[in-house]
UniProtKB/TrEMBL annotation:
Protein's name according to its UniProt entry: ATP-dependent zinc metalloprotease FtsH
Enzyme class: hydrolase
Record-stated family: In the C-terminal section; belongs to the peptidase M41 family.
Keyword set, alphabetical order: ATP-binding, Coiled coil, Hydrolase, Membrane, Metal-binding, Metalloprotease, Nucleotide-binding, Protease, Transmembrane, Transmembrane helix, Zinc
Domain annotation AAA+ ATPase: ranges: 98-243
EC number(s) reported in the record: 3.4.24.-
Length: 489
């Protein structure tokens, strides 16, 4: 009623101004601009159930914990937390406070979203997914309204599906739940987080629909302490990169619908993919299948996987072709890396190539050792030697160095700094914050220089080996570790 009266009064006013001979063009412009801003703000603020992805956790989209590999510890911890929802009557009888939030933290691509979907299937809950960026707007109050609507949508969705449980999954929670007081322009970020805290505090075990908030982040250090305290995010589940056995299980999951040749060895592939996440491994299996299709093969062979490892790690092959002199320098550089790598650990060279990929004109890929999380002084010194070998080889054979060694030097310095921080230098146990910069620089330089002299002494006696390998590498552009070791022997 008020809307109709306002419109009628506005039209009467405009007609009166026209009769009186006033120019109403500025008034019309202001009215149109105000109406446009009003409806834009209203459209921004309105949140319907269509803004959030809903899934019942049943049917073709169902994902269970069996479909997630390499995260047995994380899955077990998450399943224990979900049992509080699944067996709510037991916890009510024992007087246990229900969990309100579970935080999944870990590197990108490790399966946090899949675990949230599997949690919905495990608890037979309605599943509502959102991203932290969906709640941040320039208009005051919109973010808080969207948080309220998200929780209401979860309850309504569960009732429609005749379920008593609902799981809300918020990805990139650090955008929504960042530490308060860091944005000085306005308090919209803080208001949105405050509303999330209020909604979590309002969750009760007696509710018709029991709501559990599951969030994912790879920057847990950015979250506000009030969000992480007990009573809100009660459990923090670490979803880390898989180990070798985990990578093998993930590869088995992603190759179960692919025809594999008899020469495919997933154990070897798992060993050579140290540091890869589940997303990397899925991409690796997919790239191997694409390569087999391009070659017209009906089965995926081991060499398809080997090529895919290079592509996922380094990027696709580049069209640019370096000059003959540059190709020779790159080959010498990579041979230097490979010779020292074989010296410090026999059988470590997997591939040697001068084919440009990504930002690298060539590279030497090592066969990783068993997954290692602690490093000794000998190991770090050996790594520094391998990193310096390329530049030293250029200097011995060609008489000078190139800018291609810049990244190698950065890695060597980082390894030396790790030795210094771990008390493996001549200074013993030190505090880096209180250590003078000139002393720190001299110590790190001394560690690097010592390894450089040892590498130079070793490579100087191998000039004939350089010549033999160089001819073959320039001709074939890529040789395997077995071929490389045959030249050394």
């Amino acid at each position: 009623m008020f809307k109709e009266i306002s419109i009628g009064f506005g039209l009467a006013t405009i007609i009166s101004l026209i009769v009186m001979g006033y120019d109403i063009t500025p008034f019309i412009f202001l009215i149109a601009a105000g109406a446009g801003l009003f409806y834009l703000a209203r459209a921004r603020g309105m949140v319907s159930t269509k803004n959030f992805k809903s899934s019942s956790g049943t049917g073709r989209c169902e994902i269970s914990f069996r479909d997630i590999g390499g995260q047995e510890s994380a899955i077990q911890e998450l399943r224990e937390a979900l049992d509080f929802i699944k067996h709510h009557q037991d916890i009510k009888n024992l007087g246990i406070r229900p969990l309100k939030g579970i935080l999944l933290s870990g590197p990108p691509g490790t399966g946090k979203t899949l675990m949230a979907k599997a949690a919905a299937s495990y608890t037979d809950a309605a599943f509502i997914a959102a991203s932290g960026s969906e709640f941040i707007e320039m208009y005051a109050g919109v973010g808080a309204q969207r948080v309220r609507k998200l929780f209401q949508t979860a309850r309504d969705s569960a009732l429609r599906q005749k379920k008593t449980n609902a799981i809300i999954f918020i990805d990139e929670i650090e955008i929504l739940g960042g530490k308060r007081g860091q944005t000085t322009s306005h308090l919209e970020y803080d208001q949105t987080l405050n509303q999330l805290l209020v909604e979590m505090d309002g969750l009760r075990v007696e509710d018709n629909v029991r709501v559990l908030l599951v969030a994912a982040t790879n920057r847990a250090d950015m979250l506000d302490p009030a969000l992480l305290r007990p009573g809100r995010f009660d459990r923090r589940v670490k979803v880390d990169l898989p180990d070798k056995e985990g990578r093998k299980v993930i590869l088995q999951l992603h190759t179960r619908n692919k025809p594999l040749a008899r020469d495919v060895n997933l154990e070897i592939i798992a060993k050579e993919t140290f540091g890869m996440s589940g997303a990397h491994l899925e991409s690796l299996a997919n790239e191997a299948a694409i390569l087999a299709m391009r070659e017209g093969c009906r089965e995926i062979s081991q060499h398809h996987f080997n090529e895919s490892i290079d592509k996922v790690m380094m990027g696709g092959k580049l069209d640019k072709q370096p000059s003959e002199l540059e190709m020779k320098r790159v080959a010498i550089h990579e041979i230097g890396h490979a010779l020292v790598s074989e010296k410090v650990r026999a059988g470590s060279v997997s591939t040697l190539t001068i084919t440009p990929r990504g930002e690298a004109l060539g590279y030497m890929r090592q066969t990783p050792e068993d997954d290692t999380y602690l490093y000794t002084k000998d190991y770090l010194e050996n790594q520094i030697s391998v990193m310096l070998a390329g530049a030293v080889a250029e200097e011995i054979i060609l008489g000078n160095r190139s800018t291609g060694s810049a990244n190698d030097f950065e890695q060597a310095v980082r390894a030396a700094e790790t030795m210094l921080r771990s008390g493996m230098s001549e200074l013993g146990i030190v505090c880096l914050e209180s250590l003078p910069q000139d002393l720190k620089h001299r110590t790190i330089s001394g560690i690097v220089r010592e390894q450089e002299e040892q590498v130079r002494e070793y490579l100087t006696d191998l000039k004939e080996v350089f010549d033999n390998i160089l001819k073959v590498l320039l001709e074939k552009e890529k040789i395997t570790g077995e071929e490389f070791r045959s030249f050394i022997n």
